[in-house]
Amino acid sequence: MKLSSKRFVRNLLGKRQSQKNLPPTPQRMLDEKGHTNVVRLGIRRSPWNDLYYLLLTISWSWFFTLTLVLYGFTNTVFACLYLIGGDNLANAQPGSFWDAFFFSVQTMGTIGYGAISPKTFYGNVIVSIEAMLGLLGVAVITGLAFARLARPTARILFSRFAIISPHNGVPTLMFRTANERGNQILEARLWVFVVRDEVTQEGQTMRRFYDLPLSRPQSPVFNLTWTAMHPIDESSPLYGETPESLRDRATEIVVSLTGVDETVAQTVHARYSYMTQEILWDVQFAEMLTYSSDGRRAIDFSRFHDIESQ
User: Fold this and answer.
1) Which of 57, 83, 216, 253 lies at 20 to 30 Å from 67 by C-alpha?
2) In this predicted model, what pLDDT tens digit does every residue of 77-90 receive, in sequence order?
3) By CB neighbour count within 10 A (0-12 exposed, 13-18 middle, 19+ buried), where does 212 fall?
4) What is the pLDDT of residue 16?
5) Would you call 156 helix, strand, or coil by DSSP?
6) Residue 114's domain spans which residues?
7) Cα separation of 116 and 212, whole Å?
8) 98 to 75, 80, 83, 94, 103: CA distances (angstroms)
9) Cut 0.85: pTM above it
10) Residue 16 dihedral angles phi and psi, to the nearest 5°
11) Are β-strands 117-118 and 89-90 bridged in parallel, bridged antiparallel, or unpaired?
12) Do residues 98 and 138 share a domain?
């Protein structure tokens, strides 16, 4: 019987949540976009210590906002400098802030309409300084925008849930991944780790990483879906585990995918993680590979996250 993923998981988790005295659900190490979800305490961080990295990693909305704020602030400062020196601008109203401001905009952008011009030595000095800073500012902002646009990105889709179910008679951890773009990722490779809490003989709690070898860790051409499989045999770190033991040790499955994007010929990467409540047992993924009317192989992404009971 096929169930939608949301309904199936809601029914499954409802039984687990009915149990009493369950420990609080731990937070994942990676968020849904693959970014780190770890809070750093005891480190004094200032945006001025790594300003270039900050400008590369903030969102585009914040980048444009900061650019506009800096642009307006700089022109305001130079407009005030023109006004402080007295009547330094020809064809401008004496003491007019807006005439000085828009003249600063024209100077910084090397527009030079010619309606307003400096007429004193002081005015020419300020124009020279502003013209030089304007050239440097345009170069820096252009370089930052190009660096942000040139960063290779991947649109990799991971299944919302990982499953543990028999495959060829062996319990197997499985999850799906796919390339959302229409191009190909060459020499794609998957790394899978299990992260869990362990207590040493001295009573210290440590967060341990263990490799989970896959049946097929790489794909020469990644253009279809890819179901990653880790057999849980005697050599597997997951051997003998149960849903309760995984939850008690705050287990998390971390996935990392790398490959070469054929369009930009650069390495791209994506990460994802599965918490204990996102690892389902004794179920299977719904079939999503089909054929189009002209006989070509097709992928029905509307069923990518669907699961079925066995």
Assistant:
1) 83
2) 999 999 988 888 88
3) buried
4) 47
5) strand
6) 51-150
7) 70
8) 10, 10, 10, 11, 8
9) no
10) -70, -35
11) antiparallel
12) yes
Structure token pair of residue 244: 């309760």
Residue 98 and residue 171 in one domain: no
Say if 269 falls within a structural domain.
yes
Predicted local distance difference test score (pLDDT) of residue 23: 45
Distance CA 270, CA 256 (A): 6
**Do residue 194 and residue 78 come from a single domain?**
no
Phi and psi at residue 143, to the nearest 5°: -65, -40
Tokens of residue 75, six digits: 């022109």
Instruction: Give φ, ψ of 177 to 5 degrees.
Output: -145, 150
Amino acid at 241: E
pLDDT at 249: 86
Strand (E) or helix (H) holding 114: none
Residues 126/127/130/131 CA torsion (nearest 10 deg): -150
The residue whose two tokens read 């499955």 is: 253
pLDDT of residue 221: 81
DSSP classification of residue 36: B
In the chain, which stretches have pLDDT less than 50? Answer: 1, 15-24
